[in-house]
UniProtKB/TrEMBL annotation:
This is cysteine-S-conjugate beta-lyase. Residues 1-10 have a biased composition (Basic and acidic residues). It comes from the Eukaryota. Its cofactor is pyridoxal 5'-phosphate. GO terms for biological process: amino acid biosynthetic process; transsulfuration. One of its GO terms (molecular function) is pyridoxal phosphate binding. SUPFAM superfamilies: PLP-dependent transferases.
Length: 259
């Protein structure tokens, strides 16, 4: 009997399974979520941990030596962040993930897609920082914001205007009143009437463990990782996830500009 043990995939380099969600174009049988969240994977073959560490090393360096490498300055990216983004994408049923300094930084990047004259539909119960940012956009940037009771999906319909409605911003559950929104129903209504509008969901209160909005029609999802994604009250961070390549490119371009 031949020994084919050398052909086995190392435990620390398992392929990333994709979501079983029908909204994704490519799918294969996924692992259970508990396996996904516990498995450390290598984002690409060029940066495998040479020792097969079960915990990703923290790169405490500002700069990287070399010419033309993937990393040059840690503000732009480093291997630790790449692993984190890969892991967040995996557990969020996402093709793309970006890690930033806070949840509000994530929303700020997302809303920079908006231009003067754009219209936004948002809930009537929002996180305070979100409400302040929308107020700033309305007051200073010429963006129209409609606040509606998003617990009733049809309340968004009168405000959906093709060519004007650019974004529908949802929280579910909301902060602070914990109102629950039917993401799939609202997404269907929006796509039917305003197919170019972007559906954004704040998933902070649930985290990918309990809810993955991309599986229910959302275009972009963001979380304040300071809260339940971290869980230890010892850091501040935000994440942005999406499946659409065009939105990922816009997000990446905005990140570079803000960098």
């Amino acid at each position: 009997m031949s020994d084919d043990s050398d052909k086995k995939i190392p435990v620390y380099d398992l392929p990333t399974p994709e979501s079983e969600s029908p909204s994704l174009p490519r799918s294969r049988q996924p692992y259970r979520f508990s396996t996904l969240i516990a498995t450390v994977e290598t984002p690409n073959a060029g940066h495998q941990d040479q020792h097969g560490s079960s915990s990703v090393p923290i790169y405490q360096t500002a700069t990287f030596k070399g010419v033309g490498g993937q990393y040059d300055y840690s503000r732009s990216g480093n291997p630790t962040r790449t692993h984190l983004e890969h892991h967040i994408a995996k557990i969020s049923s996402a093709e793309h993930a970006f890690v930033v300094s806070s949840g509000m930084a994530a929303l700020d990047i997302i809303t920079r897609i908006l231009k003067p004259g754009c219209e936004v539909i948002a809930g009537d119960d929002l996180y305070g920082g979100t409400n302040r940012l929308l107020t700033f956009l309305r007051t200073n940037m010429g963006v129209t914001v409609h606040h509606v009771d998003t617990t009733q999906a049809t309340t968004v319909v009168p405000y959906l205007s093709p060519g004007k409605t650019s974004m529908v911003l949802l929280e579910t559950p909301t902060n602070p009143l914990l109102k629950v929104v039917d993401i799939a129903r609202i997404s269907a209504l929006v796509k039917e009437r305003c197919p170019d509008a972007i559906i954004v969901v704040d998933n902070t209160m649930m985290s990918p463990y309990l809810q993955r909005p991309l599986e229910h029609g959302a275009d972009i999802v963001y979380d304040s990782a300071t809260k339940y994604l971290s869980g230890h009250h010892d850091l501040m961070a935000g994440v942005i996830t999406c499946n659409r390549d065009d939105l990922a490119k816009v997000s990446q371009d905005l990140l570079h500009k803000k960098n």
